[in-house]
Design a protein that fits this description.
This protein has helices at 16-32, 69-73, 80-107, 114-131; strands spanning 37-40, 43-47, 54-60, 63-66. With 135 residues, the protein is an alpha+beta fold. Helix 1 crosses helix 3 (80-107) and helix 3 (80-107) packs antiparallel against helix 4. It is elongated and about 60 Å long.
């Protein structure tokens, strides 16, 4: 019986290889996420799982690349180091959005004087600009 090639849908097919990469990325983030270092706008140093050495990950714009052997072998896929940077950025973005929401809630508080209210508005505006949101 011949095996039919899979038809690409809007979501990528979950394969054991993809699943295990995602699981390994989550484990890498949990164990070494605090050691992931942003060294340039789109460049991160991600520790190896063994803790001996780092891999350079380009993450941003249209490019996602890593200098690890897995990414060299599968250049069209995301290795666990790229996925770990994605987790880091998503968590930071979520923390920033939560901080913005808290500031906006505080801004709505009635017991502030005009100076305090303006200082808080300025902080909200700076955070929105950093997140790329419009006021």
């Amino acid at each position: 019986m011949a095996v039919q090639p899979s038809i690409r849908t809007t979501t990528p097919e979950v394969t054991p290889e993809r699943s295990s990469r995602a699981e390994r990325a989550l484990e890498l983030y949990r164990n070494h996420g605090r050691d992931i270092e942003r060294v340039a706008r789109d460049l991160y140093l991600v520790p190896s799982c063994s803790g001996r050495g780092f891999y350079a990950v380009t993450y941003g714009g249209d490019v996602e690349a890593c200098d690890c052997p897995d990414h060299a072998h599968h250049p069209d896929g995301a290795c666990k180091h790229i996925l770990a940077v994605g987790i880091l950025r998503a968590k930071r973005r979520g923390a920033s959005v939560r901080a913005l929401t808290a500031l906006e809630d505080e801004l709505a508080h009635e017991l502030m004087d005009d100076v305090e209210r303006q200082e808080l508005r300025d902080r909200v505006l700076r955070l929105r600009r950093r997140l790329g949101q419009r006021s």
